[in-house]
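note to self — DONT lose this again. spent like an hour looking for the file last time. sequence + predicted structure for the chain T wanted, 304 res
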Amino acid sequence: MTTEKIMAARPRGLAWQRRRASAARFWRQYRAHRAGVLGLATLVLFVLLAVAAPLLVGSDVDDVTGAPGSPLERPSADLPFGADRFGRDLLGLVIWGARVSLLVGLFAAVLSVAIGMLIGVTAGHFRGWYATVMMRITDWFLVMPTLVLAIALATVMSRSLLTIVVAIGVTTWPTTARLVRAQTLAVETRPYIERARALGGGHWHIMSRHVLPNVMPLVLAQTTLIISSAILAEATLAFLGLGDPTVVSWGGLLQDAREAGAVSAGHWWYLVPPGIAIALVALAFTLCGRAVESVLNPRLGVAR
């Protein structure tokens, strides 16, 4: 290997060593948060169930023609969670519904954070009339009820999972935009930003090389917190009948239970499993998000 190649490979090796050391330090500090570890373990369990759903319950779990039980059958040894109004196994439906609910929550959160990060970074960097217009739009979305806007979008668009993702993503970004803009303004007051401008660094160079890496920890923590809200929003929209009726989700199961009169008839086994699944996943993401916030910003003082 030539001297030039050795000199070029050395900085890359040092960079990877620093990344590995940073990741190890993050995990060491994260493990100190018992609530965060519990939330992470819960998420891993649900993700494994969602990934292994085709092997555990089969892809025909939502088939009404081959339902293993009778309509609204109570829990038993053969059907631990009981049966729905079509006689389908509720345990299998809850496991299969994890795939849809987790994916919709994740994609909706990514879309929301992407919009908020784009608006927040650009508004904090360019300022002037552009920042004023963007922040007034953000304020408008902040004062409007998020659920009402999502319902309005889901109503005028076709009923599909993409509609749910878009409806949640384009209505939940303002908080992220506000946080990212504040962090961007703080970063751009630092001396190395002035040096970068003096050396001829353009807008894209400053935002991508200096601002974005400094706001990414905040974005990561915000993403984990938004996923829980997105899962709850998906369940709410599905419960109101605005979801895709051809797929199985936790919110869709609750909507089926409502239509079957499970609440008034006392068929608790139809309502409790999907409701508990939604609550556990939302709580797990919240615990993980709080732990990530505490690790990335110890001044928050989040309890362990």
